[in-house]
Design goal:
mainly alpha; 2 helices; membrane
Length: 44
């Protein structure tokens, strides 16, 4: 058996981890976009 399959660091599902990574990155870029829109509206 593979050596790395014996000693698993994280037993959580990879789909959940990748989904959380996608959600956090989406929220991060949405916050940057919202800040830009706010400054654009204030600057008019």
């Amino acid at each position: 058996m593979n050596e790395f399959k014996k000693d698993i660091q994280s037993k959580t599902n990879d789909v959940i981890d990748s989904g959380l990574g996608f959600v956090f990155s989406f929220v991060f870029f949405f916050v940057i976009f919202a800040i830009g829109v706010v400054f654009s509206v204030i600057g008019q």
